[in-house]
Write a structure and sequence with these properties.
Layout (H helix, E strand, L loop, with lengths): L9 H12 L3 E2 H8 L3 H13 L3 E6 L2 E6 L5 H10 L2 H13 L2 E2 H5 L6 H13 L3 E6 L2 E6 L2 H10 L7 H13 L4
Antiparallel strand pairs: 1-3, 2-3, 4-6, 5-6
């Protein structure tokens, strides 16, 4: 069944387009970006989920939205972490530095060790990061850096972050991509 008849309302088209361009966007981000009343947005999102136009994924206090059938579970997890400032910074650092110890990662961020551990454990639980004990240290690395980079490049515009712009430009020029 085509989704076009289900998107006959202009507001639903706008919501779907925004979710398609910003996969993993959460409710309040969507509400602010589209300047919709909370009740109206909630109504349309529930309609679109019920009619299998979009899917959502609960993540702590957030519910993130994705176009249906466009992303596998690992891509949803990657996009979800990329939408969060601290995990996004950790991911970019791990792309650039491959394998790193907790202390090396921590030395590049203005966060506590406990905060870093919290985010690394969450990323491990979702299969984004793997950890390996090396002597007294644990080294962390991305499980599929190529997939992460691909999603970063593809959805670069949806991340309002100068770091991402800089990273993507640098990555493309180093790897001679168009």
């Amino acid at each position: 069944m085509s989704i076009e008849p289900l998107l006959d309302l202009e507001v639903r088209k706008k919501i779907f387009e925004h979710i398609s361009l910003n996969p993993g966007v959460h409710f309040r981000e969507l509400q602010r970006a589209l300047n919709l009343a909370i009740g109206a947005l909630d109504y349309h999102l529930k309609f679109m989920e019920k009619n299998e136009i979009i899917v959502s994924k609960e993540e702590g206090h957030y519910k993130r939205y994705y176009p249906r059938n466009r992303f596998d579970p690992s891509s949803k997890s990657i996009l979800s972490f990329l939408r969060q400032e601290i995990p996004r910074g950790i991911i970019l650092f791990l792309i650039e530095n491959k394998r790193c110890s907790h202390s090396k990662i921590l030395s590049n961020f203005d966060i506590s060790g406990a905060t870093l551990s919290y985010h690394l454990k969450r990323m491990q639980a979702e299969g984004l990061v793997k950890a390996e004990k090396k002597g007294r240290e644990i080294e962390y690395e991305l499980v599929d850096a190529d997939k992460v980079v691909s999603l970063l490049i593809q959805y670069k515009r949806s991340f309002a972050d100068v770091l991402i712009d800089s990273f993507v430009s640098s990555w493309i020029s180093r790897n001679k991509l168009p």
